[in-house]
Amino acid sequence: MTANKDSDLLKLLDVPLIRQRPELPTGCEAVALTMALHYYGVNVSKTAIVDQMPRDVTPVTRNDDGSIKIWGDPETGFIGDPYGNGITINPNPLKQVLDRYRSGGLALYGEDFSAIEDYIRNGKPVLVWFTINHELPTPRFWKTPEGKRISSPRPLHCIVVTGADSKWVYFNDCESTELSGKNVKVEKGKFIQIYNAMGRRALVVN
Questions:
Q1: Most buried pick, 1, 16, 23, 201, via CB within 10 A?
Q2: Segment 83-98, tens digit of pLDDT
Q3: What CATH number is given to the structural domain containing 191?
Q4: Is the pLDDT of residue 150 over 70?
Q5: Whether residue 118 has pLDDT greater than 80
């Protein structure tokens, strides 16, 4: 992809694009990690990564209106089935899988986007919890059986940031929509708004 010619353009990281479908309709976090590992020449399969993820096997309980009442905790592990009806896994438990292949990974919570830019500038791909439609999410909450309140805005997705300049953020999106692909871009201010709304979650792959 030919990016714009801003003098401050960061060199785009050549992270291979791997699609999550058809095998993993809700396994975007595992596929994003697989792409980042392939960037370093670790040619593990996306299904191997998925099968190594910690899981929270709490069954879903719904309210009368169909909304989620009780489900699992993504800080424990992946909720649901990444091969079917699943939701997400947070950076900390996903890092447990990364640690099997590379040391030095960093699970980030609450960091300003500028921190992610610093890692990208140093050649480190960063997984960011984002949205499928590249728009601001709709809030969604449920509780775990223990009463912990979980925020999981939707439509939840996970992408790999490959570069940024003053106007745009570039990333690999493993979905199969008209928006997805290798080094797609979103206006920087909008990207940061979405990143913030999704809870400022990220995983640095060192």
A1: 201
A2: 999 999 999 999 999 9
A3: 3.90.70.10
A4: yes
A5: yes
What are 9's two structure tokens? 């353009």
**Within a domain: 3:** no
Total Cβ atoms within 10 A of residue 5: 7
Answer whether residue 188 is part of any domain. Answer: yes
Sorted by sequence, the CB contacts under 8 Å of residue 66 that are 6+ apart come out as none
In a domain, 22, yes or no: no
- Residue listed under structure tokens 């590379």: 102
With a cut of 80, say whether residue 10 has pLDDT above it. Answer: no
Secondary structure class of 61 (helix, strand, coil): strand
One-character DSSP codes across 21-50? TTT-TT-HHHHHHHHHHHHTT----HHHHH
State the total domains in the chain. Answer: 1
Residue 6: inside a domain, yes or no? no
Mean pLDDT for 34-57 is 98
CA–CA separation, 84 and 193 (whole Å): 29
Q: Dihedral, CA atoms, 38, 44, 46, 51, nearest 10 degrees?
A: -140
Element (H, E) at 7: none
Token pair belonging to 101 = 């292949």
